Every structure is written in structure tokens, then in C-alpha cells.
Amino acid sequence: MANRRGHGHGFTPAPSDSPHPAESGHRIEPVIPSPLPPPVTSSPKTLDVVGIGNAIVDVLVQADDAFLSDHGLSKGSMALVDEQQADRLYASVGPGLETSGGSAANTLAGIAQLGGRAGFIGRVRNDQLGAIFAHDIRSAGARFDTPAAESGPSTARCLILVTPDAQRTMCTYLGASVGLDPADLDLDLVRQAEVLYLEGYLWDSEEAKRAFLAAAEVVRASGGQVALSLSDGFCVDRHRASFQELVDGHVDVLFANESEICSLYEADSFEAAADQVRGRCRVAALTRSELGSVVLSGEETFVIPPYRLGALVDTTGAGDLYAAGFLYGYTRGESLERCGRLGSLCAGQVVTQLGPRPQASLPDLVATHLG
Amino acid sequence: MANRRGHGHGFTPAPSDSPHPAESGHRIEPVIPSPLPPPVTSSPKTLDVVGIGNAIVDVLVQADDAFLSDHGLSKGSMALVDEQQADRLYASVGPGLETSGGSAANTLAGIAQLGGRAGFIGRVRNDQLGAIFAHDIRSAGARFDTPAAESGPSTARCLILVTPDAQRTMCTYLGASVGLDPADLDLDLVRQAEVLYLEGYLWDSEEAKRAFLAAAEVVRASGGQVALSLSDGFCVDRHRASFQELVDGHVDVLFANESEICSLYEADSFEAAADQVRGRCRVAALTRSELGSVVLSGEETFVIPPYRLGALVDTTGAGDLYAAGFLYGYTRGESLERCGRLGSLCAGQVVTQLGPRPQASLPDLVATHLG
Asked: Which of A126, A190, A306, B371 is most buried, by CB atoms within 10 Å?
């Protein structure tokens, strides 16, 4: 079965007209026409997943519904704020708990914790929060070599308001992370990835978006796949046409929750949205909170149950850790159903604690629940 | 009963030969000879407790016993490290969770959260961690006006290694906090305090120690009392003679755990140490982890049970929150037994979570368990 470390099998996407030579699972026979060009070069893959995202330190604060409505915040969403707004909002909330965050960064830290070979690209400033971010992702086991900015805005911060129903509402000051541009890209790192993973939030910055598109070209040219997480319903609203085009033309694995996939296709129901996305990318993994998730690939549909591992404390990072578990399995050639279960399990853990980086051992959890 | 806000009763310590005019509890008849001089002035008391301590941001990290022994760390203790050592140690640990800390600061934040009128004096640098510290203590409801240092070492950090048995082992880089000196003291704030609270850790810095002694003079001259927490067995070892002199001549309320009180009097048993301290200060509140605590005053002894409010997660802040609950009751004229129960309850809460600042509502807890 899956070889946890140093597994030497290539992860070359199969052109639609030739069967994939690998030994098992969904990679043998892609059941949908692949939009991928045949690989131009076939670099050795030393990393399972490389992610590009905003490098953010989270400030977790408890809040009630009245606070959200007083400040015009929409529960469960992510709003962008400038530094002044961030400072003003921070001054109005109670004591916080700081932890490294960032959607794709959470995913890559989770993959590394599971034993996957992970790398992250994102921009911090050379300040105290930047040092915390760099320490945390490296100490989780991921490669992180993006040089810290020597000047300009400070490291990105996200104020996360956790309400008593465990929902999180986020206000992000993008700071230094917004300046990520193609020049910051370590293309050698990207070439080493079997899967390049992107958070949709990058679309809020033109530079970061261009950086991602450049990286997507490189990873595909070197035989890798591209995964995208849609991040947030409002973010999809802001960039709908661009995301639709991206999914149709450049994405192999799409992650989205119910509101995001409905927003992407302006669909009235989850089922209608699922019908819309089917066939547009190799795999779509759609998460539905307490309903678990649904994984679509060609004509296949896998309904994955949720894992309830304790009281619901904070949903921060649930989607990010779902993607971590899924991609960890995916890059090991596991069946799509098992990929979904791995995602569901990791998401089930992170919602039982405060913050988006699992404090429990994910490998222990997998051993206990999935053998 | 206790008036939560704006209660106008003075907290003038009674000279030993005159009965205290206040209405209830242990303050009516001090049963031990008071070492206090009669009040010289009687300033209006607008704050219940003002604390002086190291202003620290904690970095909480999970570790195992092997890590402690590999790095020569003594479980449960606090070791001082310089910035280089701090950086080296940080590089060798896993991902962390950052939260404001500092022993006395935790106590004052707890008192404020309970509804007490609290102020804190301590020194941060004008950097990101300093801003986090200032935000957290102010947003808990405490006054904090000490100006941030514009240059010099960065804000103090404490790496807290939490082992699976929930014990914490601390490595502190004192940074900017060590530079607290009498010039930083807001004597107006001190004069407004019914109780001045000090952490023993200040004794590791000559400037901070002098600052505290100056403040103790001021608070006593204006009719307040002085409370001291011994902080750490090794800290007591480093400063035994000085602490003994302090307890005999300047301290009204002493907080210590079993190892600290034994270290102070080089006693072989808790009972021997308790016999030694009895009568040397107005009140001694001695905590004994899972055995609860013992409060001594004159010939009186109150044995206080522990409160078990959930699984033991992290003992960081247990002593600090005990002092918070105790002093909150004490400055409201509650009986010493109830003061002890308030302390025990707050400590019982904080050990069920990661970090030293209660994430649950302390007033709700008091209402539920102590009516």
C-alpha cells in the first residue's frame, strides 16, 4: 500500500487517451477527459504538495453575535481590512490567542504533520509575527524558504472572532503577504511538487494571482497537478468569472464548501452546484459541515461521513485540514473514498480545538480511525 | 455582601492595638500583630489591586520528558535564558500557541475579569509582542499605562513546554521587562491600590526589585497592603535571605506553593514550612496542587479543597489564578475561607485549558460554584 516516505512513483497526470502506468487507485484510469497537456518534462518529484498562500498569524478572540452585527460582519465569512481598521477592531475585542494561520499554510502544515512532503510559499515581513509564522510551519515539517520582506507592511494578521456556536468570522489585514509576486516564487520548489495547491484568497491580490498562475504553468509543464480551494463565498463573489475559467482550464482537484460551490455557479442548491462542477475538473471535493463531504470524479460520487471526535469548539481550519488529509491520501495513490475519509478525519479533529493547526497527533488519529 | 464596583470602603490596615472599623470578615480583628506602621495618609482607593511584574508573552509548546532532560530543564521550574538561548530553544521545538502571560500580569488580568479594579505595571518594548501584551491586559479590564520602551531588548518571551502530564516547564527571556526601574513606576497608580501585588520573579532583576520596594513603601504609607507570590522554588533558592526579610518586614499576604514555602525555610515537610511561616505575615495562602490549599492567619487554619472542573490540560497559570481569586475576595472583605475557595476555583478553571489567561468566564464560574 501507500509508502509513507520516499515513495518513488511519479505522479504524472495521464493524458486522456493513455492509461496511467501507476499501480492502483483513481490514478490508473482517469474517468474524465483530462484538460492537462501531456507532460513536457518529467522532473523528479521530491515533494508531495507545494502550497502558495497568504502567510498569516491568526488572533483568536471570543465574540458574540451582537459584536458581529455591531461591526457589520457576516458570520462565517472573511473580510479584508486595512491596517487602521485592523487596529481599531483589535482594540475593541477581548484578550486573544495567537497562532500561525493562513488557509493554504494550515493545509501544508497538516500534510507535513501527517508525514507528507510539504512546501509552502508565502510572504512575511522580518518582524516578530513573521518569525512565529516561519517557525511554526517549519517545525510542523514543511519547507518554507520564501525570504521575509525587509521593508514595507508588517506580517499579515487575521482577527478571528469565534462565536459560541463555534463558527468563525475573519477580518484579515493582508500586510506583507499581499506583495507576493512572481519574483518571490521559488520555481525549483514548485517543479518538485506532485501537486501545487492554491488558496482562492490569493485572488484578492493581483501580484499573488499572477504568481500563482505562473507557478501553475510550471508545475503542469513538469508533470504535476493543480489543486485549488475556493476559500470563501464572498471571495468567490469577488472573482467568479476568473475562478470559473480557472476551474475549467487549470484545476485538477477542486475543494469548496457548500456556499462556495453554490456561489461559483450561482446555483440554488448544493445538488445543482454539484451537477455544474462535475466533469469540469478531475476531482471535486465538496465539504458540507455536519453533513460530511461529497467527492465527485467523472461519473463517480463518493459520499463521505463526518467524524465527530468531541465537542465542537471552533471551526477555524476545518476546510484547510480537510484538504490536508485529502491531498495526503491523493499523493499516495489512495482511493478517492479514503482520501475523503482522511480529509474528513483531519477536519473532525481541528474543530474540537481553538485554532487551525492541530494540537493532537494526526498520524495517531489516522492509525486509530482509519487503520 | 460584596459590592462589585465602586465599593467605597477603605482598606486601611488596622494597627495591632485598634480594632478595624470595617464591617465583616477577617479584617475586623487581625489576630496577628501587624507589622504595618499606622497609615500616614489615607488616599482614596480607586483600585483593588495593582501588580508589578514581568510583562511577558508566552509561547506554549507541547514537549515530552525526553526533550526536557535533553535540554537540562527541570520539570515544573522556570529557567532564565538569554536571547540567543531563547532563539536556539525555540528553533528546536514544535509549533506554538502565543498568549499574553507573566505571573503577576495573569493575576491582575484574572482580578479584572472577575470584576475587580486592577492595574498592572510592567515593561514591554514597542514591538508586536508588546502590542499583544498591552492589548490583552487592557482588554481584560486592567489599567496598564507603563510606557513601552522605544529601544533596547524586545518584549519578554517565555517558552512554556507543556508535557503530557499537564506540567509546564518555562524558559524565560526577560528582554525589555528586566529594565523596569523606579523611574517607570506610576506612583499615583500605586497609591490608589488597596493591595500592591508582587511576583517573586522580579527579584531576578536588581532594577525591578528596587522598583518594587519603592512601590511597597508608597502603598503602605498610603494605607494599603502588600502581597507577594514566591513564584518558583529555584527563584526562592536564588534569593532566600532577601525573601525571608521581605516576608518578615513588608508582606501582608504571602502566596506560595509547597516547594516554594519549603525552599524559603529550607523545611523538610509542608507542615514544618507552614509552622515556620505562621505569624510572619498577616495571611499565608499555601497551594498544594491536587491537595488544594491551606490558608494560615494567626492561629487560624483553613483547609481549602481543590475544584476539579475537567481534565487536567496545562498547569500554566494555576498559582497566578489562585492569587487572582483570593485577592478579589480579600479586597472585598470576604472571609479567608471564601477567599481561598475563590482562588481554588479560578485555579481549577485555568488548568483545564492551554495557557494562563482564562478563556471561560470567571464570573459565571463563581456564580455557578460559589453562589
From this structure: A190
Subunit contact B95:A139, Cβ cutoff 8 A: yes
Nearest by CB to A97, from B90, B99, B140: name it. Answer: B99
For residue B16, is pLDDT > 90?
Answer: no
**What does the pLDDT read at residue A292?**
96
C-alpha count within 13 angstroms, C-beta hemisphere, residue B44: 4
Alpha-carbon Rg for chain B, nearest whole angstrom, is 19
Is the separation of the CB atoms in A168 and A353 below 8 Å?
no
**Does residue B65 belong to any structural domain of this protein?**
no
CB A39 within 8 A of CB A25: no
Nine cell digits for residue B247: 516576608
Q: Which residue of B has its CA nearest to A62?
A: B359
- What's the grid cell of residue A187? 520555481
Q: Is the complex ipTM higher than 0.90?
A: no
Q: Which residues of B touch A129 (CB under 8 A)?
A: 128
Q: In the structure grid, which three cell numbers stand for residue A194, read together?
A: 506532485
In chain B, what percentage of residues exceed pLDDT 70?
Answer: 88
Which residues does chain A have with pLDDT short of 50? Answer: 1-41
Given this model, what pLDDT does residue B31 score? Answer: 39
H helix and E strand count, chain B: 13, 14
Query: Per the structure, how many domains does chain A have?
Result: 1
The DSSP secondary-structure symbol of A90 reads H
Predicted pLDDT at B15: 35
CB of A45 within 8 A of CB of A193? yes
Report whether B285 contacts B343 (CB < 8 A).
yes
What is the rounded CA–CA span in Å between residue A120 and residue A133? 11
Residue B6 has what pLDDT? 35
Q: Which of A163, A61, A353 is nearest to B99 (CA)?
A: A61
Give A328 to chain B, closest Cα distance, Å. 20
Whether A3 is covered by a domain: the verdict is: no
Sign, CA torsion A25/A26/A30/A36: negative
Q: Are B194 and B11 in contact (CB under 8 A)?
A: yes
pLDDT for A371: 86
Interface check for A109 against chain B (CB to CB < 8 A): the answer is: yes
Report residue B164: phi and psi, to 5°.
-60, -20
Nearest CA to B98 out of A252, A354, A368, A46 is that of A354
Name the strand (E) or helix (H) holding B198.
Answer: strand B193-199
Contact criterion met (CB below 8 Å) for B154 and B185: no
Cβ atoms of residues A135 and A69 within 8 Å: no
The angle subtended at Cα B57 by Cα B53 and Cα B60, nearest 5°, is 125
Rounded CA separation A341/A359 (Å): 20
Of A99, A155, A359, the CB nearest to B62: A359
- Residues A162 and A62: beta-carbon distance below 8 Å: yes
CB B26 within 8 Å of CB B297: yes
Cβ contacts of residue B207 below 8 Å, gap of 6+?
B178, B179, B180, B181, B182
Residue A361 touches partner B, C-beta closer than 8 Å: no
Model confidence at B218: pLDDT above 90: yes
In a domain, B60, yes or no: no
Q: Which of A43, A17, A86 is closest to A192 using CA atoms?
A: A43
Structural domain boundaries, residue A210: 20-31+38-54+103-149+179-369
Task: Give phi and psi for B220, each to the nearest 5.
Answer: -70, -40
Contact B94 A354 (CB under 8 A): no
* Measured CA angle at A92 (ends A88, A94), to 5 deg: 135
Q: What is the pLDDT of residues B24-71, one digit of tens each?
A: 333 333 334 333 334 444 557 999 999 999 999 999 999 999 999 999
Residues 6 or more apart whose Cβ sits within 8 Å of residue A270: A258, A261, A262, A286, A288
CATH of residue A134's domain is: 3.40.1190.20
Q: Is residue B164 part of a domain?
A: no
